[in-house]
């Protein structure tokens, strides 16, 4: 089973949550974006939320339900 992957990334003066190039929502603060991203990721398990820094680097990741990686075998 594949997992849904969501990203919290900078967007202009704010932050956005996106999945596969589709924007889920925009937020004025990073914390609001992370809170919203965790909620949507938790509601669509198995999933992962990847939080980026203002310069685009990965800051942290949250995985919900069983992590399918590494694959069995």
Report what the structure shows.
It comes from Micromonospora cathayae. This is DUF2188 domain-containing protein. Residues 1-20 are annotated as: Disordered. The protein is α+β, with helices and mostly antiparallel strands and 73 residues long. It has one domain (4-64). Helix content is 18%, strand content 45%. The chain has 1 helix and 5 strands, in the order E-E-E-H-E-E. It has a 5-stranded mixed β-sheet with strand order 3-2-1-4-5, covered by helices on one side. A hairpin with a 2-residue loop joins strand 1 and strand 2. The model has no long low-confidence stretch (mean pLDDT 91).
Radius of gyration: 12 Å
The number of helical segments is: 1
Helix content: 10-25%
Described by its quaternary structure, the protein is single chain
Low-confidence stretches: none
**Termini gap:** 15 Å
In round numbers, the mean pLDDT is 91
Question: Total strand count, please?
Answer: 5
Secondary-structure element pattern, one letter each: EEEHEE
Give the spatial strand order of the biggest sheet: 3-2-1-4-5
State the shape: globular
Strand share of the residues? over 45%
- Given helix and strand content, the structural type is alpha+beta
The total tally of domains equals 1
Can you summarize the main beta sheet? 5 strands, mixed
Protein name: DUF2188 domain-containing protein
Pfam family, one: DUF2188
Region (Disordered): 1-20
Give me a quick take on this structure.
The protein has 73 residues and is α+β, with helices and mostly antiparallel strands. The protein is 18% helix and 45% strand.
